[in-house]
Design goal:
The complex is a heterodimer.
Chain A (H helix, E strand, L loop, with lengths): L4 H6 L17 H10 L9 E7 L9 E2 L4 H6 L11 E2 L5 E2 L4 H8 L3 E8 L7 H10 L10 H9 L8 E4 L15 E3 L14 H5 L10 H26 L13 H9 L6 E6 L10 H26 L5 E6 L20 E6 L6 E3 L18 E2 H12 L5 H5 L11
Parallel strand pairs in A: 1-8, 1-9, 5-11, 5-12, 6-7, 6-8
Antiparallel strand pairs in A: 2-4, 3-4, 5-10, 9-10
Helix pairs in contact in A: 4-10, 8-9, 9-10
Chain B lengths: L21 H11 L5 H8 L3 H9 L28 H11 L1 E2 L2 E2 L9 H31 L3 H13 L4 H4 L2 H14 L4 H9 L2 H6 L13 H11 L7 H11 L2 E4 L2 E4 L9 E3 L2 E3 L3 H10 L1 H15 L6 H13 L4 H10 L16 H11 L11 H7 L22 H15 L15 H11 L4 H4 L10 H6 L9 H15 L12 H7 L5 H12 L6 H15 L4 H4 L4 H12 L8
Antiparallel strand pairs in B: 1-2, 3-4, 5-6
């Protein structure tokens, strides 16, 4: 699905999606329609994978607006020349290493949401990340939005519904009812004990009629750990894929392994860790590599899912805590910015551009893109459009108009 | 627990002397400190509850001979003011002909190289020294005779959460800890003003860029949202007005300064009051708000008692804190004497924080020093609470968020690492750093020139560090070489962390306790280490396990060879979910 700039403009767009308004009460009729169109939650096995690109990905050098002269005026040195971008239409092209994204886009499996952000943006990594994690900008919440989503969609909290692959639990998956399964290295997600101890460790007490709720919580956790660690280890041991995920894989092979093993998980959370995208200095080669790895890994994941026969069941949503300053800095890099692109990839995704394009000439006082899409609209799209839940407003503490993003 | 304890829930009235016993004293010591040995608990149990609580809360007269932090001596005045980034350092060097106390070379290759080396030296040295500060603090927690002083300091560290990774100066984080020790149970206003004017917080929340005409709201927002009132009790306009009042607050090295010309000296309207306020005025207006005392009292309660508290209890505690003019000690005294604190809703329902888990395990093992193996920082960090590295400015969330299935297993693995130290242990403060630096080191030692030695290798990219290491034009200086050389210099200058293993003798413990058989041994361990015993079935399993390991149930027969088996059984026991409860 390739859109020429003219077609894009004719479509009135940059809004196949809905545009700038962020918090709109959903008209009852629309709500009904959306519900009628929405897939039924309980019956199907739809899976959402959230991929966090930590550090603040430079969206302008990812989806390059090579058709806009203003881009090159802001970035005379680090702007990517038209002859080096992977053009997807007359206006945009991907950074040169992103063959994987280019293919996904041209196959109509990649949605690009433009101008995603929120009012009064924070330029602190962790403050802004916390806003994205909790879907509560300038406020925060005790639980993460993915955790709240799990609570809303599966209040009976079946085990292993929510998996977070990382060294520590992300705030995004913090849940009131669920015990997110958090592990990093599948080979190390295991009880380290001696041979003699095995039988005793195998015995996990039943939480049955325990009154102390903290104790009950821990006993549940212990049982989950025991069963999940065996499952994860086995899933990982049995997973052999011919698909090349590139240099890092971004934990997506682990997700594929769990999906392949038939884990009941519906929500996965992984990240490109350690503030990797924080490209303040000499960003050219580095940023291109980060994008290449990301693009390779996501495209490979899609191929792998196809191989596993699960491509119809999975989408990957990608975000960063902020974009970067529009003008380049004096170190051939970019500083913390505001609005940014988000991506949604999947076989059922209607590829293309969503949201209103932020202006490159009318920046805010800090030379940042003014957001045009509340990022929670994309979250809402995942919640209602993809997972078919009616709990979007409750999960996001407000009504955010979803995009019509799925076939 | 006595039957009555259920009815005590939410009752802030004091318990009676007749209620007081060993279990109550043990519970009190778990929460107000880091648990205790049977001897310490018995000593408290012999007092009246009022005496016991006063002994811990009003600890100022208890003599405490603890060594001060032993600085490695890595700082020198030339490092101040420390620039915000490597590019800022080289820019400063080019402009002034010197930076970080080092002059640009008169000639030769890479004239800025020594300056760049020193920049990386300080970053690394401060990180390593911070690890030593954490060890020093851990040892205080373990050895102190004033456990509440340390427990409260840990509370404030989570409350006024500052991360060394941003402050990049162990002296500032150490200085802030000293404030927590000094004011921790004292007056909250004193503490708040001291913290707000302390370089650690000023640096962490970007005070330096909060100047007249271009106010930065970071500090003003956090002081209201996280440190005093909580969200919902002020408007965005209040944030902006408060930010103006704080303009000009800054620091020079370790000293607080007010830059008068950067201070916005005009009228502000803040929380309904109007005047030419400065930062301290704003703090005093904040302290007048009932929301503040309620917020602080509630947070203290959650830390010491339990996660859930009723609105009524929170109101009462908040009123109490205000009535005492924000003196924290009387509030603590009330909480620790309250029936609510000893009710079944409170006892054995708290999930230990990782630091609490580590320190209380060492304490109950009878250790007087934090072992060097396993590494205290790595162990607590793996479990989610590395000192001086809270995840965000909001500190640690606590409660159930301490635990994941993976972390429950890790907690058991931690106990294993204490009882059976890893013979392949490599000290993380001495070990080779990231592969990039290691490769550069190897190539330089092999005689390669700097440009060749520092060429990036394919596929060696990690995360953040790379973005700052890449692609400098290798003329004035070489960043990757500077990074390597900085690590090397830090290794020379920062004192090593002692790496003794835990001094554990469970055989001696069993003999001194007069234990006769394996059942008694398991029961003794349960009573000594746990506030919530495991299910009876598990207890029996462990006794049988010990029988089988020893070939007898008679400990006098097994005395000469039972150490390893006792350690196995203790590892099994302390891996139980119940051990995570305090």
């Amino acid at each position: 699905m390739t859109l020429t700039r003219r077609k894009v403009l004719q479509a009135g767009l940059y809004g196949i999606g809905i545009g700038a308004t962020s918090v709109l009460p959903l008209p009852p009729l629309f709500a009904r329609t959306a519900r009628a169109l929405a897939p039924q939650t309980a019956a199907d096995g739809r899976i959402l994978v959230v991929l966090e690109l930590s550090g603040g990905n430079d969206g302008l050098n990812t989806v390059v607006p090579y058709g806009d002269d203003a881009y090159y005026r802001h970035r005379p040195k680090i702007g990517i020349r038209p002859n080096r971008v992977r053009k997807i239409d007359e206006h945009f092209g991907f950074s040169s290493g992103m063959a994987g994204f280019e293919r996904l886009y041209k196959d109509g499996k990649l949605a690009i949401a433009h101008g995603c952000g929120y009012a009064n943006p924070s330029f602190s990594h962790f403050t802004s990340m916390a806003y994205w994690h909790t879907a509560a900008p300038n406020r925060g919440d005790e639980y993460g939005w993915v955790g709240r989503l799990a609570d809303a969609v599966a209040p009976q909290a079946p085990s292993n519904y929510l998996v977070n692959i990382d060294a520590r639990q992300s705030m995004a998956v913090r849940s009131k009812l669920h015990t997110p399964l958090v592990f990093d290295d599948p080979n190390k997600f295991t009880r380290e004990g001696f041979y003699e101890e095995r039988d005793v460790f195998a015995q996990v007490a039943d939480a049955g009629n325990v009154e102390n709720s903290s104790r009950r919580f821990l006993l549940d956790l212990a049982r989950s750990a025991k069963s999940a660690s065996a499952l994860v280890k086995e899933a990982w041991a049995n997973y052999k894929s011919p698909v090349d995920y590139g240099i890092t894989g971004l934990d997506l092979p682990k997700v594929a392994a769990l999906i392949s093993a038939g884990m009941p998980t519906r929500l996965y959370y992984v990240s490109y860790r350690n503030n990797a995208f924080d490209t303040h200095v000499f960003q050219g080669d580095l940023h291109q590599r980060l994008l290449t790895y990301t693009s390779d890994a996501v495209a490979a994941f899609m191929t792998d899912l196809e191989r596993l026969g699960r491509a119809n069941d999975v989408v990957v949503m990608m975000f960063s805590e902020f974009g970067r300053r529009v003008p380049e800095n004096s170190n051939l890099g970019t500083d913390h910015g505001a609005a940014n692109v988000m991506f949604v990839a999947g076989k059922n995704v209607k590829g293309g551009h969503y949201g209103k394009l932020p202006s490159l000439t009318q920046l805010d006082d800090g030379d940042n893109l003014v957001y045009t899409t509340d990022f929670r609209q994309v979250y809402a799209t995942m919640i209602s459009g993809w997972l078919g839940s009616e709990a979007s407003a409750a999960v996001l503490n407000g009504t955010f108009e979803p995009f019509d993003m799925f076939a | 627990m006595p039957q009555r304890s259920t009815r005590w829930e939410n009752d802030l009235a004091s318990i009676a002397p007749s209620d007081w016993n060993y279990d109550f004293a043990a519970h009190f010591l778990e929460r107000a400190g880091f648990g205790g040995t049977p001897e310490e608990i018995e000593a408290l149990a012999r007092l009246s509850p009022a005496e016991a609580v006063r002994r811990l809360v009003y600890f100022q007269n208890i003599e405490n001979v603890l060594p001060p932090f032993d600085h490695s001596g890595i700082h020198d005045p030339g490092l101040e003011p420390f620039p915000e980034s490597r590019p800022a350092v080289t820019k400063m060097a080019k402009e002034k002909g010197e930076a970080l106390g080092i002059k640009v070379k008169a000639g030769g290759d890479r004239p800025l190289q020594p300056i760049v080396n020193k920049f990386f030296f300080w970053l690394r040295a401060s990180v390593l020294e911070t690890q030593r500060v954490a060890y020093w603090w851990g040892n205080r927690m373990l050895a102190t005779r004033r456990p509440l002083e340390e427990k409260m300091a840990l509370f404030w560290h989570g409350h006024f959460a500052v991360n060394e990774a941003k402050v990049r100066d162990y002296r500032k984080t150490l200085g802030q800890l000293e404030l927590f020790h000094k004011y921790g149970t004292g007056n909250f206003r004193d503490l708040l003003v001291a913290v707000a004017q302390d370089p650690a917080m000023l640096s962490f929340l970007d005070a330096g860029v909060n100047v007249k005409g271009s106010a930065n709201e970071n500090f003003a927002r956090e002081i209201m949202e996280l440190f005093t009132m909580g969200v919902g009790n002020y408007s965005e306009k209040d944030v902006r007005e408060a930010a103006r009042a704080f303009t000009g607050w800054n620091y020079v090295d370790l000293k607080f300064v007010v830059n008068k010309d950067q201070h916005d000296d005009s009228q502000k309207t803040f929380l309904g009051a109007t005047g030419n306020f400065d930062g301290v005025d704003v703090i005093d207006i904040i302290l007048k708000q009932p929301a503040t005392s309620r917020f602080i009292a509630g947070k203290i309660y959650r830390y010491f008692v339990r996660q859930e508290l009723t609105s009524e209890v929170q109101d009462n505690l908040g009123t109490m804190l205000r009535a005492s003019n924000y003196n924290v000690a009387p509030l603590l005294e009330t909480i620790f004497l309250s029936r609510d604190f000893y009710s079944s809703a409170s006892v054995g329902t708290q999930i230990k924080s990782p630091v609490q888990l580590a320190i209380s395990t060492y304490k109950k093992l009878g250790l007087t020093e934090v072992p060097g193996v396993p590494d205290f920082n790595i162990a607590t960090g793996t479990l989610g609470q590395r000192l001086f590295a809270p995840p965000t400015v909001a500190g640690w969330s606590g409660g159930r968020s301490w635990m994941t299935p993976g972390l429950l297993l890790e907690r058991g693995n931690f106990v294993r690492d204490v009882l059976f130290p890893d013979i392949n242990f490599i000290p993380p403060d001495r070990a080779n750093p990231s592969s990039d630096i290691r490769i550069v080191a190897e190539k330089v030692r092999a005689g390669q020139d700097i440009s060749t030695a520092t060429m990036p290798e394919r596929g060696s990219e990690g995360g953040l560090a790379e973005s700052n290491m890449l692609a400098d034009r290798d003329e004035d200086f070489n960043t990757r070489y500077g990074s390597f050389r900085g690590w090397q210099m830090a290794l020379e200058r920062v004192k090593p962390i002692p790496r003794q293993t835990a001094d554990i003798n469970l055989t001696k413990m069993a003999v001194e306790a007069g234990l006769k058989n394996t059942t008694e041994a398991v029961d003794y361990f349960i009573r000594r280490f746990m506030r919530v015993p495991p299910a009876d079935e598990k207890r029996q399993t462990l006794s049988s396990f010990l029988n089988m390991q020893l070939g007898t149930s008679d400990l006098s027969v097994a005395k000469t060879y039972m150490e390893d088996s006792l350690r196995l059984v203790l590892h099994l026991l302390l891996s139980e979910p119940e051990y995570q409860l305090s």
